Amino acid sequence: MYLSADQTVAFATEHFDALVKYAGHKSLAITIAPTLPVMRDLALIFKDTQLSWAAQDCSNHLAGAFTGQVSPLSLKEIGCSACIIGHSERRRFCGETSEDVATKAQLLLDCTLSPIICIGEDHEHMEQALATLHEQLNPVLQAIKNYQHKIKNIPVYIAYEPAWSIGTGKIAEGSYLESIFAWLKKETQALGAGFTWRFLYGGSVNAQTISVFKKIGAIEGFLIGKASSNFEEFEKILKSIMLES
Question: Which residue from 77, 101, 116, 153 has the highest number of Cβ atoms inside 10 Å of its Cβ?
């Protein structure tokens, strides 16, 4: 909600050429997760380009009397390829549980959409980070463990976002991130072959911190929040990533 609906459309229109150019670069894949009311508008603006679309959340029901919620099926129908679930703000402000996230992951995969599963510890649980992450991730892994033969070529994203780092400017040390992502790979590989996993990092990703994060070999991409709403800042992040390719 950094940008209103009109501001989002203006952002997309003003920076159309640059966004299309960067999305076509061999080392970049850009997925935009705009506010829901402008999803179809932006899909039309960027039609026939290499940008893809994600929603910021979805319902844990496919259909029914669930006023105010959005079905994963509807997201599929308007052209989404993925959906963010389990974001720390959803967990904190909306009471979303790990079981809710697990159900959403199943529904998204049933609709052939990639779940972008957010996990992360808060400041109080930094010393027990792996236990917290296990508590958040394990219900999802158990829920989708039998999907490996149903979802060929549908990536499943794990986005590690330590809540204490989101929007605070505080960043984790490289060794800390290396250990977290090594654990994540071990946990996901335990489900066996058939899944395509992608590992993302989010939390105070900006033009200044990207130089640190991009050195972590296990990180395959970034979930960028506020910095993505400022095009000059976002462009600096993209250029920094391109320098490594």
Answer: 116
